[in-house]
């Protein structure tokens, strides 16, 4: 997989927030940090993603697998 830029990552996270899949929590303590959690709507997608992952693992050529993509 190619590395993702900070800009693209931020845009993707914002799209997931806007879709109601992820929520952002800002912590105003030192050091400052942010955490993201799945909403109930986001959690409802876990079984779907698991099935897609299982299908991919069953159909990928093992010689093309450079790292574990799903766990």
Per DSSP, what share of the residues sits in E-state strands of 2 or more residues?
A: 15-25%
| Integer tally of domains | 1
Rg is 16 Å
Mean pLDDT: 90
CATH architecture: Orthogonal Bundle
Number of strands: 2
Low-confidence stretches: none
Whole-Å distance between the termini?
16 Å
Query: Biggest sheet: strands, sense, closure?
Result: 2 strands, antiparallel
> What general outline do the C-alpha atoms trace?
extended
Adjacency order of strands in the biggest sheet: 1-2
CATH class: Mainly Alpha
What structural class do you assign from the helix and strand content?
A: alpha+beta
What is the count of helical runs? 3
CATH superfamily: Winged helix-like DNA-binding domain superfamily/Winged helix DNA-binding domain
Organism: Companilactobacillus nodensis DSM 19682 = JCM 14932 = NBRC 107160
Pfam families: HxlR (PF01638)
Keywords: DNA-binding, Transcription, Transcription regulation
GO molecular function: DNA binding
Q: How would the blueprint of this fold be written?
A:
Blueprint: H1 6-18, E1 22-27, E2 33-38, H2 40-43, H3 46-59
Antiparallel strand pairs: 1-2
Structure commentary:
The chain starts with 5 loop residues before the first helix and ends in a 12-residue tail after the last helix. 0% of the residues are buried. 44% of the residues lie in helices and 17% in strands. The mean pLDDT is 90. It is built from 3 helices and 2 strands. β1 (22-27) and β2 form a beta hairpin. The protein is extended. Strands 1-2 form a two-stranded antiparallel sheet. The chain has one domain (6-64): Orthogonal Bundle (Arc Repressor Mutant, subunit A). The protein has 71 residues and is of the alpha+beta class. It has helices at 6-18, 40-43, 46-59; strands at 22-27, 33-38.
